[in-house]
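Whiteboard transcription, Tuesday session. T.W. wrote the C-alpha cells on the left side:
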C-alpha cells in the first residue's frame, strides 16, 4: 500500500481523530509532488497543514542505497528522526 493512496490518506485522517494527534510525520516519497496531498489531508482532518513534516526516504535513501538494505534502513530511521525533530 502506498502512503499517498486514497485508502492510506483516509487512514491517516482516522488516526488523527482516534489518537488526537497534533502533528503528522510521513516517511515516503518526494515532497515535491506529494507534500500538497498530505497537507490537504491533514487540513481536512482539522489540523494546521504546517504541523506536517515529510522524510523523503524514496529519493534520498531507498533508490540511492538499493544494494545495501541495512544501510537504507538505518538512513530511513535517521531521516525520520530528523523529521520528528523538525516537527517540535
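and on the right, the sequence the group agreed on:
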Amino acid at each position: 500500500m502506498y502512503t499517498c493512496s486514497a485508502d492510506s490518506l483516509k487512514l491517516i485522517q482516522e488516526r488523527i481523530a482516534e489518537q488526537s494527534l497534533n502533528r503528522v510525520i510521513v516517511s515516503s516519497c518526494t515532497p515535491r509532488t506529494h507534500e500538497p496531498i498530505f497537507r490537504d489531508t491533514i487540513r481536512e482532518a482539522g489540523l494546521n497543514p504546517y504541523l506536517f513534516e515529510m522524510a523523503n526516504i524514496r529519493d534520498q535513501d531507498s533508490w540511492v542505497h538499493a544494494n545495501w538494505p541495512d544501510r537504507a534502513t538505518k538512513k530511513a530511521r535517521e531521516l525520520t528522526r530528523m523529521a520528528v525533530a523538525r516537527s517540535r
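Someone added at the bottom: The chain has one domain: 6-87.
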